[in-house]
Amino acid sequence: MAKIASSFLDISYLDSLSRLQSPIHRLDPRVKVIATALYLISVVSFGKYEITGLIPFFVYPIVLIALGDLPLVYLLKKILIAAPFAFFIGMFNPLIDRAVVMHLGPIGISGGWISFVSIMLRFVLTVGAVLALIASTGFASICMSLEKMGVPNVFAVQLLFLYRYIFVLIDEASRMVRARSLRVFEKRGMGFSVFISMIGQLLLRALDRAQRIHRAMRCRGFDGEIRMTRPLAFCRRDGVFVLGWSALFVLMRLYDIPQWMGERITGLIG
Fold first, then answer.
1. Is the distance from CB of 161 to CB of 224 less than 8 angstroms?
2. pLDDT (tens digit, 9 = 90+) per residue, 113-136?
3. How far apart, in whole angstroms, are the C-alpha atoms of residue 64 and residue 132?
4. Residue 1: its pLDDT value, please?
């Protein structure tokens, strides 16, 4: 539980990265949200047997990380933490879909393995792009951008609160687990009934903490609006960013660039 808590609490480091100064950080948050949304739609719209067409899409998160001066190793660690979820989703594909769809020399590769690799590729691409977006923008700026683009205010505010106060919930849970571990010996006190009781206590603590946080926010003048110290301002470079990436996403979605390049190289060699 301590490792899980530390992993969740460490996510707040992404917000500190959003305060850096780089060409990506200085862009309007709305254009980054739009470009990333188009990117996610393009990636997930591929068929389940598509692999080569996904490779060019690595360019978007790589450019965000490079130009934003973001720590690559840190982001890769975050991707690895969530990787088991995607792995368990696709791990049964090779067992279900055993039809051979291609040959790699004398080795026949089934559709299940291809779809499994495709799932993992799309997971890395989408999660990497979202992490790069949060690290270069900040979650509060993302929520405000959604609100300015027409998303209902109540949804944007609740999304912001969910992200901000999930750390408080994890902290409460980790303290309860530490308190229980200090009051039991070996394996005692770890049954299902104890687990249910701890869940109930966590719910009561969360409600009590939520009431205190709400009263504190009301005393400080919170009225349900998300406000930022830096106002949103759309300029020419923002338009170039979103239009350029959108055109590139459409091009990479409609044409299998690696396959096209392979055919051209093979033709030149032949």
1. no
2. 888 889 999 999 999 999 999 999
3. 6
4. 47
Torsion of CA 55, 53, 124, 110, to 10 degrees: -110
Joined tokens for residue 200? 């109930």
Give 183-193 pLDDT, tens digit per residue. 766 556 566 67
Q: What pTM did the predictor assign? A: 0.80
Q: Which amino acid is at 240?
A: V
DSSP string, the chain: -HHHHHHHHHTTHHHHHTTS-STTTTS-HHHHHHHHHHHHHHHHTS-TT--GGGGGGGHHHHHHHHHTT--HHHHHHHHHHHHHHHHHHHTTHHHH---EEEEETTEEEEHHHHHHHHHHHHHHHHHHHHHHHHHHH-HHHHHHHHHHTT--HHHHHHHHHHHHHHHHHHHHHHHHHHHHHHSS-TTTT-SHHHHHHHHHHHHHHHHHHHHHHHHHHHHTT--S----SSPP---HHHHHHHHHHHHHHHHHHHS-HHHHHHHHHHHHH-
Task: Please provide the distance, in angstroms rounded to a whole number, between the alpha carbons at the two ends of the chain.
Answer: 59
- Closest to 157 (Cα-Cα) out of 169, 140, 178, 176: 140
Q: What is the pLDDT of residues 54-93, one digit of tens each?
A: 999 999 999 999 999 999 998 998 888 888 888 888 888 8
Distances in Å between the Cα of 4 and the Cα atoms of 84, 87, 135 are 14, 19, 20
